[in-house]
Amino acid sequence: MEVKTSLLDNMIGVGDMVLLEPLSEDSFLENLKKRFDHNEIYTYIGSVVISMNPYRSLPIYSPEKVEEYRNRNFYELSPHIYALADEAYRSLRDQDKDQCILITGESGAGKTEASKLVMSYVAAVCGKGQEVNKVKEQLLQSNPVLEAFGNAKTVRNDNSSRFGKYMDIEFDFKGDPLGGVISNYLLEKSRVVKQPRGERNFHIFYQLLSGASDDTLKKLKLYRDFSKYNYLSLDSAVVNGLDDATSFRTVKNAMQIVGFMEDEIRSVLELVAAVLKLGNIEFKPESRCNDTDESRVRDKNDLKEMCELLGIEQTVLERAFSYRTVEAKLEKVSTTLNVAQAYYARDALAKNLYSRLFSWLVTRINESIKAQTKSRHKVMGVLDIYGFEIFEDNSFEQFIINYCNEKLQQIFIELTLREEQEEYIREGIEWTNIEYFNNAVICDLIENNQNGIMAMLDEECLRPGTVTDETFLDKLNTVCAEHQHFESRLSKNSKFLNDHSLPHSCFRIQHYAGKVLYCVEGFVDKNNDLLYRDLSQAMFKANHSLIKELFPEGNPSKVNLKRPPTAGYQFKSSVGTLMKNLQTKNPNYIRCIKPNDKKAAHIFTPSLVCHQVRYLGLMENVRVRRAGYAFRQPYGPCLERYKMLCKRTWPHWRGPAREGVEVLMADLQVPTEEFSYGRSKIFIRNPRTLFFLEERRRQCLQDLATLIQKIYRGWKCRTHFLLMKKSQVVVAAWYRRYAQQKKYQRIKSATTVVQSYARGWQARKLLRELKHQKRCEEAVTTIAAYWHGTQARRELRKLKEEARRKHAVAVIWACWQGLKVRREYRKFFRANAGKKIYNFTIQRIMQKYFLGVKRGLPCMSPVDKNWPARPYRFLDAAHAQLRSIFHLWRCKKYRSQFSEERKAVYQEKLEASELFKDKKSLYPSSVSQPFKGDYLEISKNPKYQKLSNCVEEKVLLADVVNKINRANGKGTSRILLLTKKNVVLADQKTGQVKASVALPDLISVSVSTQNDGFFALKLKEGSASAVKGDFLLSSEHLIETITKLHHIGSTASDDGEQLDINISDEFLVQFKQDKVCVKFIQAATKNGNSASCKRKNNRLLEVSVPAATA
Ligand SMILES: Nc1ncnc2c1ncn2[C@@H]1O[C@H](COP(=O)(O)OP(=O)(O)O)[C@@H](O)[C@H]1O
Ligand SMILES: [Mg+2]
Questions:
Q1: Model confidence at 1108, in pLDDT bands (50, 70, 90)?
Q2: What is the rounded CA–CA span in Å between residue 478 and residue 451?
Q3: In the beta sheet, which residues pair with residue 1070?
Q4: How much distance in Å is there from the Cα of 903 to the middle of ligand 2?
Q5: Average pLDDT for residues 768-784, to the nearest whole number?
Q6: For residue 105, is it left (φ>0), alpha (ψ between -120 and 50) or beta?
Q7: Is the C-beta atom of 159 inside 6 A of ligand 1?
Q8: In whole angstroms, what is the distance from residue 272 CA to residue 356 CA?
């Protein structure tokens, strides 16, 4: 929640001078001093801010302060420049009222600092964003540039602005800055050529010489030594707290930010250097024949360097320093210049050069910072202008400056009164006329077009004939003598005739801020501000664009014979424009006061402050403000602040605030003439009434604080007590529970112990009884067992005795019977009956055995291995014999069923068995395979039609074999045909016969003992088929093929010679001329299951056979 505060809280002295009671100059100063001593440098007069220069940095400009004052009402917080800035900015942004901030005060009072604080505050609170920040930055950075060229160290201020500055900052409807326009007023250009004691020339000269790089200085033909330049005063060239070298870099940087081009910066520095050079040009007299002195440049080196720098022809400039051409209508008259005139011309040129450069800088900055959009802007003007000056020696400059301040005072009075009056009308309060001093009469004395001092001066300057400052004073003495604010020794007004404080060459004006004595010396010259045309023309001829631009009147094609407007006239019109401008805006005043002349902190010189208070018209200001009602406050905040003073409004007032305030005032019995009700504010006539309210409030607050404290303490104690009570109950409950738990557990364990003892005792008793019972039972059982045992043994003995007796009886009886039978049948037995019985028995056994065999015969399949088991061992041999007989018989039976073909097949199988069984490991796998013979179905297959036609005999075997190439051992598929007479090898694809071997030419066939299908056909040496040598073939049906070959071979041979079958793992074959050994080796299975063949050399062909898998 935002805390509602007021200016009236924790006030040191009074924050608003309007509330000063009693109001007098002394109390005013007293209040200022009190506040100043407590670091309260700001004090209000209504909405005007008085600012005392603290001459040290105070911690009151931090970002936190900015936040504190942001969006708060003016009277809500203690007086601060930020409050004024915030008020101005918000009324610009929210109420669309253009604002101007008028900062006045004498040199060194803190005007420039105040203007910078206002600008920085506005920059901090207005909108943000890339574009806005750039504009802000440019606006803020224009300050260092203008300060470097327009500020100088004076006795009053180390950084004194030597020009007046008015800056319009433009904002868009949102309150974001768009740009700005700067106007400058009357640069104190005399400083360029001469500085009072203890003061310096403009900062830029020192900054350039201290801060520029050696290279830059060389280019500008400058030395780092200040003492080398006549225009630089030496006694205070180095100022404590000012770092010229750093400032130079800051200025250059600021120029870049503002948007100066590199060559623009260079040109500006060249001009600055040129001014320094110009100061070093010195003249010497040269006597002429007609007794006049003519000036000549003494040492031309500086002139030369300057001319080089600016691209001016040296002779042209040199001439301009020696002659002066006066043009009148049709004639041109050239007169020579004496040394004094030459110096005057040189200084005039330097002053003009510098002041025009300064004006150009302002124009150039304006070009950069001007708002880019054409839409309507809201404007906040900040006027930082030299304050009223009263020196010992007051000249034309002071006259002009004081005139400006006079105008500002007038506008201040006008606007303050107007504002006051407007508020009264707005609030419906009757307007009471306010007595105040209107300085319009002084303004009139100075600026009146007919008989004003400035008009007189202009008239003198333009008048033909000899014109001097004295003639001007004479004129004033005649024209203004009657004016009540004009005083002069020689005026017709005889009352000053004896006033020795008024010298003859001076006149005095009674300004609103005090009397100022002006010395007329130099008025005419300064007003004329003459620069000889020869010089401006010489400048225009320069080969330097900036110089050319600064001296447009030097253009010979645009020679203007009219005199240029006088300095006074120019100033008057620009002040007129400024005043018009200010009148359209809502004014906000900051009146700066310096507390001492020593630029020192903590020192308050009452006389000095008093003087400023007087000439700033601050007392006047307070009186105007207090003329009607000293204090006013909107009803809401007023009720909020004082509602505790009346029971009916405290603590809450439900109705409208105004009625609440009415009730409050009635209740407090404030006399009705002391206040008035406006539409939205209450107006309090006298500060006394306000302080009465404040005092009552303070007391009431104390009572309220006590009440609040009392209630709070009561509440705190009560809550604390209740909390303790509640806690006590909880603690007690917990403790009781704990105690009960403990007690219960103790009782429980005691009970358990007692119980266990009791149970133990009972159990032991029971155990004893049970044991006794058991012993009794065991004793009974033992006794019974012994008794039964005795009885049973006795019985057993008796039974055994009886059985023995019965057995003896039976044996005796059997013996007796046997004896009887033998005696009876002995007579019936023959001698060999035993043998007959034996034979009969054997016959019976044999009969039974054969019948058993018959019944148990196995089935008729020759492969059935069953045979009934033998019943008697003595028949073993017969049983085996019978089994063999039965098997042979059943085989015969089986064979008798065979057809002729089947018989042939078995014949072949038999032959194969005879040939290969137990000789070649391939054999067993062939047994179950039927021998098909014609695997290719050669006669039926149309593909082999041609081949079958070639062969005359019946084909016994047709199969695809692999013919091994004799040279490399690789295989080629061939068809192998076997007929009764030939072995034919034909191409598998085409069926073309490749080789045909007549069977008689075949002498042997060789195969390995292993699991492979390789076979070699050995041919008779010299036979027709044996041209290429023996054949090495491989067949899937090796066993069948060889068997067939063997069979045919033996039947086909005429001489009954058998075809030789050679089974061995190494045999020789004849390939062409070579005898090659074919060797079979067992190989690990590598290329699948098939055997592979490889010709190792011309003696060896190796066949690797994979080991037979089980
Ligand atoms: N608010 C301030 N806080 C601290 N120092 C200040 C303040 N105002 C002015 N000064 C000091 O006073 C000097 C002169 O102030 P300046 O604004 O240049 O005076 P003016 O523009 O009125 O001639 C500054 O250089 C600074 O040292
Ligand atoms: Mg200043």
A1: low
A2: 10
A3: 1075
A4: 146
A5: 94
A6: left
A7: yes
A8: 12
Higher-confidence residue of 974 and 1056: namely: 974
Structure tokens at 1099: 């003696």
Strand locations in 952-1001 (E) = 957-964, 971-978, 982-987, 993-998
Quote the tokens at residue 669. 């019995």
Sign of CA dihedral 115, 116, 122, 125: negative
**Residue 384 CA, closest ligand 1 atom number:** 21
Ligand 1 atom closest to Cα of 115? 17
Q: Under a CB-based contact definition with an 8 Å cutoff, are residues 1050 and 1056 in contact?
A: yes
Which token pair is 117? 């604080």
H-helix or E-strand spanning residue 167 = strand 164-171
Q: How many residues does the chain have?
A: 1110
Best residue among 51, 55, 599 to mutate for probing ligand 1, ranked by most atoms within 8 Å of CB: 55
Give the dihedral of Cα atoms 253, 255, 256, 261; nearest 10 deg.
-140
Q: How far is the CA of 113 from the centre of ligand 1 (A)?
A: 5
Which helix (H) or strand (E) segment holds residue 279: the answer is helix 262-280
Q: Is 54 near ligand 1, meaning CB less than 6 Å away?
A: yes
**Is the pLDDT score of 1000 beyond 90?**
no
pLDDT of residue 120: 92
d(CA 58, CA 680): 37
Report d(CA 366, CA 250) in Å as an integer.
19
Q: What is the pLDDT of residues 575-633, one digit of tens each?
A: 999 999 988 888 899 999 999 988 899 999 999 999 888 878 788 778 777 777 778 88
Distance CA 828, CA 582 (A): 189
Residues with active-site annotation: 107-108, 112, 157, 160-161, 387, 389
Q: Which residue has the CA at smallest separation from atom 16 of ligand 1?
A: 110
Q: Give the distance from CA 606 to its chain's centroid.
A: 58
Three-state secondary structure along 352-391?
Answer: HHHHHHHHHHHHHHHHHHCCCCCCCCEEEEEEECCCCCCC
CA 44-46-51 angle, 5° bins: 25
Residue 511 Cα to ligand 2 midpoint, Å, equals 22
Q: Which residue has the tokens 């001078």?
A: 17
The tokens of 653 are what? 């007032």
Region for 812 from its dihedrals, namely left if φ exceeds 0, alpha if ψ lies in -120 to 50, beta otherwise: alpha
Rounded distance between C-alpha atoms, residue 595 and residue 40, angstroms: 13
Nearest to 687 by CA among 26, 27, 5, 3: 27
- Residue 745: count of CB within 10 angstroms of its CB: 10
Determine the straight-line distance between the first and last CA of the chain, rounded to whole angstroms.
103
Contact between residue 1064 and residue 940 where contact means Cβ atoms under 8 Å apart:
no
Chain centroid to CA 986:
89
Sign of CA dihedral 814, 815, 818, 824: negative
Helices 657-668 and 635-642 pack at an angle, to 10 degrees, of 50
149 Cα to the center of ligand 2, angstroms:
13
Task: Supply 502's token pair.
Answer: 């008024």
Residues 6+ apart with CB under 8 A from 937: 958
Is the Cβ–Cβ distance between 205 and 232 less than 8 Å?
A: yes
pLDDT of residue 1: 39
Q: Per-residue pLDDT tens for 1065-1087? A: 888 888 877 888 888 888 776 55
Three-class SS of residue 651? coil
Separation in Å, CA 204 to CA 144, 154, 178, 195, 1054 = 11, 15, 29, 15, 146
Contact 346, 281 (CB under 8 A): yes
Say how many C-beta atoms besides its own lie within 10 A of residue 570's C-beta.
15
Residues 105 and 42 sit within 8 Å (Cβ to Cβ): no
Most confident of 821-830, 925-934, 1047-1056: 925-934
Q: What residues have CB less than 8 Å from 348, skipping those under 6 apart?
A: 530, 531, 532, 535
Distance CA(1066)–CA(1006), nearest Å, equals 9
Q: How far is CA 942 from CA 947, 949, 960, 983, 985, in A?
A: 10, 11, 16, 21, 18
